[in-house]
């Protein structure tokens, strides 16, 4: 990493200080870099321009690959992994710009926000893939009684909940996110076990790469877990200059950027479109006419149920009156 070359102006010129000040405002060097303890420092280190460019290119290639694959395999839900890759691309592009314009706090803030939120999309993608695998391969289309459609939707919403929670207390948010991942892994393992049973019984067509896809999901979730552990430890030590993790950019590249890049590339190599080829590989998408007809059927079903309850109530009342009449006749 390049060293920081920063000069501090005297207090009589552009540097401001006072007896009670906790920091001083430094005169920016060539790329706007100043000491990390300066009042006008936007970074806790000197950003590595070359590394940021490298990750921008790599994430950009993954995003392009996912965009092409989504169209080729006609998988609408894959826009999620496209967004994840694009957000990471934008994050490191802004990091590269910020490395050469370190006084621009907009670059620093936007880059960090995108870096922290992009993995949520990768997580959601894993949930969506497994949900569609359950729908495509299992005759019952459910795991532990949870329907495939609700399996995907529920965990995506739980992911959103953990994100909202993390906006208030980041460590709590990512801890809850990991809890949901563990729960999801239990369901995924149950699906894996059921698929193995069907495969041994010869009920799964040969040459299906479902095992490769399910192991890809396991690796993706493991990479997300690695990143969560890193971020939890990082924020546990506070966001001050005394935190050694914040002072070394290698941690961010090695334990955040690289795992998410590997997750995106693994999903390129073993793309869901390769495995989920049949019409059942996508959740049913009803047309407006079909939705209207379905609502009408539900309305009629409710009306029938309501009438049946009414008739049952009347029959019960008639029976009661008949018993009273018979009792009076006997008297």
TrEMBL record:
Region described as Disordered: 1-22, 287-311
Coiled-coil region(s): none
Keywords recorded for this protein, A-Z: Membrane, Transmembrane, Transmembrane helix
Membrane-protein topology: Multi-pass membrane protein
Matches recorded under InterPro entries: RTA1
Domain of life assignment: Eukaryota
Transmembrane spans: 49-65, 77-98, 118-138, 150-168, 174-191, 212-233
Entry-linked Pfam families: RTA1
Main subcellular localisation: membrane
UniProt subcellular location: Membrane
Listed GO CC annotations: membrane
Name of the molecule in the record: Uncharacterized protein
Taxonomic source organism: Tothia fuscella
Lineage start: Eukaryota, Fungi, Dikarya, Ascomycota, Pezizomycotina
């Amino acid at each position: 990493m390049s060293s920081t070359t920063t000069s501090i102006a005297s207090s009589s010129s552009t540097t401001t200080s006072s007896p009670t000040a906790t920091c001083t405002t430094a005169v920016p060097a060539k790329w706007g870099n100043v000491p990390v303890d300066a009042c006008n420092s936007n970074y806790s280190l000197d950003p590595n321009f070359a590394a940021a460019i490298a990750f921008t290119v790599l994430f950009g290639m993954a995003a392009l690959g996912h965009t092409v694959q989504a169209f080729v395999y006609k998988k609408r839900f894959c826009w999620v992994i496209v967004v994840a890759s694009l957000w990471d691309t934008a994050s490191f592009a802004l990091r590269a710009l910020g490395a050469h314009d370190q006084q621009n706090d907009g670059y620093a803030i936007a880059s960090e926000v995108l870096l922290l939120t992009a993995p949520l999309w990768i997580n959601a993608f894993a949930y969506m893939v497994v949900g569609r695998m359950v729908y495509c391969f299992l005759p019952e289309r459910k795991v532990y009684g949870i329907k495939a459609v609700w399996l995907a939707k529920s965990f995506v919403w739980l992911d959103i909940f953990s994100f909202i929670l993390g906006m208030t207390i980041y460590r709590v948010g990512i801890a809850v996110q990991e809890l949901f991942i563990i729960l999801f892994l239990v369901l995924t393992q149950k699906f894996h076990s059921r698929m193995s049973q069907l495969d041994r019984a010869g009920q799964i067509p040969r040459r299906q790469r479902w095992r490769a896809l399910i192991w890809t999901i396991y690796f993706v979730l493991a990479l997300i877990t690695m990143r969560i552990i890193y971020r939890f430890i990082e924020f546990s030590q506070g966001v001050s200059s005394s935190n050694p993790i914040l002072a070394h950019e290698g941690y961010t590249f090695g334990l955040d950027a690289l795992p998410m890049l590997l997750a995106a590339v693994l999903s390129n190599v073993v793309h869901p479109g390769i495995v989920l080829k049949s019409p059942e590989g996508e959740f049913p998408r009803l047309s407006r006419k079909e939705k209207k007809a379905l609502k009408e059927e539900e309305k009629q079903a409710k009306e029938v149920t309501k009438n049946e309850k009414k008739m049952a109530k009347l029959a019960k009342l008639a029976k009661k009156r008949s018993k009273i009449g018979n009792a009076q006749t006997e008297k």
